[in-house]
Design goal:
The chain is built from 18 helices and no strands. The protein has 3 domains: 1-186, Growth Hormone, Chain: A, CATH 1.20.1250; 197-252; 261-486, Up-down Bundle (Growth Hormone, Chain: A). 79% of the residues lie in helices and 0% in strands. The chain is globular. Helix 2 packs antiparallel against helix 9, helix 6 (129-160) crosses helix 15 (354-380) and helix 11 packs parallel to helix 16. The longest helix has 36 residues, at 3-38. With 503 residues, the protein is mainly α.
């Protein structure tokens, strides 16, 4: 098989692995009501089904990237894929809430290695900058596609099988991905055999753990939760200590000098902003479909198909226009499109109907498809093959943190407006959320209450989307002002394409 064909087949294996992670993030959302009954899980357990995965993912990304650089990215990626498959089987046959939470932690550990290391092998597979950008677009699109596909796949599985099937679906995908990675992906590692920065590993893991846990609690309990404030404060102090230590350490875990390069600095910032807006949409639109339009979980997932269509169009557009117009034009235009789509979303009413939502979610998907590959390509372009693992892990960890913080902040905006617009119905359990409010109104057969609850939620969703729209429009202006075109890199010699970093 030709080397070029092997590279693209290897990329397909990596994309399949990332699709699995994207699916696993959202597929659980539609299974929570069933899990509550079958596993006798209370509200706290349901929150930990998602939170355990997120915490492990956030805490271990940076160490996973460093270990891949040190001992071999392919080796650790294969181990992570196998672990992900084993943990998926454990989730499938969990007999109680505690077993499922433990298995979800292991899933998060595996995903923490899969995400940065699958990205880190791209520079070795695709040394040419243009091919690498195209490969990165495919990799990112696969990751993003898994998010809206999760509710569709999960809804269909729950309608036809038992709840464990939403985890069992990971296993064949992981097996295919692992076999393809084993056969097609070359081993690569840093040639500098430096010691692992253990104090940096501990400080970064505990800091990300504290920060992420605190913002998850804010999202669940509100901004008055003292435990959340303590957790965020401790996490922030540990991360500050981590940054200080990275300046002093002889062999630091991450290269802080990366932030001195405009490409990595702004590419990372733009990636965080688009993640922030994306999580805001995923936080509200499925609730809108179910609570206002009255569809079930599968119907809600199917109504996200226009988003997928827009995402595919946007990612195809990047391949065509990025070489001609440059990264500044693409990112600026992409954020303008995101901002416009979010403005349309903020103008949604309880009577807008699905057609209007399909329009603006399509535009939102197109904007995401343009911005995400271009922004991450801008950041990845500054990474050497030596430290691609730690650099990719740093980028992914910051995106994950941005998404978690975004859900907490935007959730507070939504909840505050929702409660203020409830009027006389601002009482428990209606004030807990739109799903509880709709359930109370329908049980009571009170059409006036139902309309008030739905209108209050749409008002809160609008306020939240206005925040996202403003952020995207400001970011568009910053991209136009701050992104500078980079001269194209010379084409590598055919024999040097893999370089001495690939074993």
């Amino acid at each position: 098989m030709k080397a070029s064909s092997r590279r693209w087949l290897a990329l397909g294996a990596l994309a399949l692995a990332m699709l699995t992670i994207g699916l696993d993030v959202t597929v659980l959302t539609v299974a929570l009501p069933t899990l509550a009954v079958d596993l006798h899980a209370d509200t706290a357990a349901l929150q930990w089904f998602s939170g355990a995965y997120t915490l492990a993912l956030a805490a271990l990304m940076l160490p996973a990237g460093a270990l891949g650089d040190r001992y071999g990215r392919k080796k650790f990626l294969l181990a992570a894929l196998v672990l992900f498959g084993v943990a998926s089987v454990a989730c499938t046959f969990a007999a109680g809430a505690g077993q499922l939470i433990a298995a979800r932690v292991v899933l998060g550990v595996a995903a923490a290695a899969m995400m940065p290391l699958s990205m880190a092998v791209l520079p070795s597979l695709f040394p040419d900058q243009r091919e690498r950008q195209r490969a990165l677009t495919i990799w990112i699109t696969a990751t993003a596609l898994g998010l809206p596909l999760g509710p569709i796949v999960g809804g269909w599985l729950l309608r036809n099988f038992w709840w464990g099937s939403v985890f069992l679906i990971n296993v064949p995908m992981v097996i295919i991905g692992a076999l393809a990675v084993f056969v097609l992906v070359p081993e690569s590692r840093s040639t500098q055999r430096v010691p692992i920065d253990l104090p940096g590993v501990a400080a970064s893991a505990l800091g990300m753990l504290g920060l992420t846990y605190g913002f998850i609690r804010f999202g669940d309990s509100g901004w008055g939760d003292p435990v959340a404030w303590v957790s965020v404060a401790v996490g922030a102090l540990l991360l500050a200590a981590f940054v200080w230590w990275q300046r002093e350490a002889e062999h630091p875990l991450i290269e802080l000098a990366l932030f001195a390069t405009p490409g990595f600095r702004w590419g990372t910032a733009f990636s965080i902003v688009v993640n922030f807006a994306m999580f805001g949409m995923f936080f509200t639109v499925p609730q809108y479909f179910q609570a206002v339009l009255g569809v079930d979980a599968l119907g809600s997932g199917l109504r996200l198909l226009p988003l997928i269509g827009g995402l595919m169009v946007g990612s195809r557009l990047v391949d065509a226009i990025l070489p001609k117009l440059g990264v500044r034009v693409v990112i600026t235009g992409g954020f303008l499109l995101l901002g416009a789509a979010l403005v349309l979303g903020a103008l949604t009413t309880a009577h807008s109907g699905y057609g209007y939502t399909a329009l603006w979610t399509t535009l939102l998907g197109a904007g995401m498809g343009m911005v995400m590959p271009a922004a991450m390509g801008l950041a990845m372009g500054e990474l050497s093959a030596e430290r691609s693992g730690t650099g990719s892990a740093l980028l992914q960890a910051l995106r994950q943190a941005g998404g978690t913080i975004g859900v907490a902040v935007l959730g507070t905006v939504l909840a505050t407006r929702y409660r203020s617009d409830l009027g006389e119905y601002n009482r428990d359990p209606i004030a807990d959320g739109v799903n509880a409010g709709v359930a109370v109104a329908r049980r009571a057969g009170d059409a006036s209450m139902l309309h008030q609850v739905q209108s209050a939620f749409v008002s809160g969703m609008g306020a939240m989307l206005w925040v996202c729209a403003g952020l995207c429009l400001i970011t568009s202006a910053l991209a136009a002002l701050l992104v500078r075109p980079k001269p194209p890199a010379p084409m590598p010699a055919p024999d040097a394409a893999e370089s001495s970093h690939v074993r």
